[in-house]
Amino acid sequence: MDITRVCVVGGGTMGNGIAHVFAQKGFSVTLVEAKKELADKAVATITKNMDRQVAKGGLTAADKDAALARLKTATSIAEAAGFQLAVEAVPERLDIKTAVFKELEAHGAPGAVLATNTSSLPITDIAASLKDPSRVIGMHFMNPVPVMKLVEIIRGKKTSDAATETVKALTVKLGKIPAVANDFPGFVSNRVLMPMINEAILCLQEGVSTKEDIDTIMKLGMAHPMGPIALADYIGLDVCLAIMEVLDKGFGGVKYKPAELLRKMVADGKLGVKSGSGFYEYPKK
Ligand code: 3HC
Prior knowledge:
This protein is α/β, with parallel strands linked by helices. Helices cover 47% and strands 14% of the residues. It is globular and about 55 Å long.
């Protein structure tokens, strides 16, 4: 199927980044948010991020205007009916995602590919209640979406080869690199990344070092672009905790037990960059 129309559900950090790259690469995009104010906020963020690309010479002003002209918003999936690809990026709750996928199945073009950007929920579970689970697939973008090259593609138990090949080809059209994983807890990316972040938080909790030095050690010693504590704040501490809980539930054992300090930060509402405070402070500009 020739994919030209894309529906992105959810306009938060990941959803707005996903809508941004599809619109920039020539697709007609409808971004669905529950409320118009949230949709407008997502478009404002996309505009700001595109302005930044224009200022840095990565995008022309004309291409930015054309991309924004290809981007529409809606407050229901029905308004986006006829899309050939959907990418869901709503909160990480199976009940919410299941409801979204039922709507997507009802309103997509025949044979539309239905992708989820879930960071760790099983694709097979998200697809379970649909008439045709073979079209459901994980399309896991990395934050910040316009910058990061990887899309981790996750095959659920019933995902078809055709859906996998379609999504791989689309990823290349977006200027990104696909890598495929099977449907195990945390897939590959978060199964490897999150225990490292959790371990860094344990180092802080146990007084092995300060947050600044933990970050310096990992940033300069291992050539990571960000230290793990700063990265946890960037991803969102609630997201990190939710992923550790999926790993803990899926595999058990001490290796995947979320650090108490991580739990406490989330319980205190310190979620990282998005809440203005996490392990570091992020004063509003
Ligand atoms: N939109 C568009 N462009 C953006 C952007 C955005 N949201 N954020 C950054 N950029 C661009 C900048 O304009 C800049 O462009 P240039 O190279 O043309 O100058 C470039 O990205 C680098 O940004 P900055 O100069 O502001 O800052 P840094 O050089 O410090 O890079 C970073 C910032 C890209 C965030 C870098 O620190 C990094 O790569 N960090 C690690 C990110 C990471 O690991 N992400 C994966 C998280 S895990 C995940 O997402 C999975 C989930 O399931 C948890």
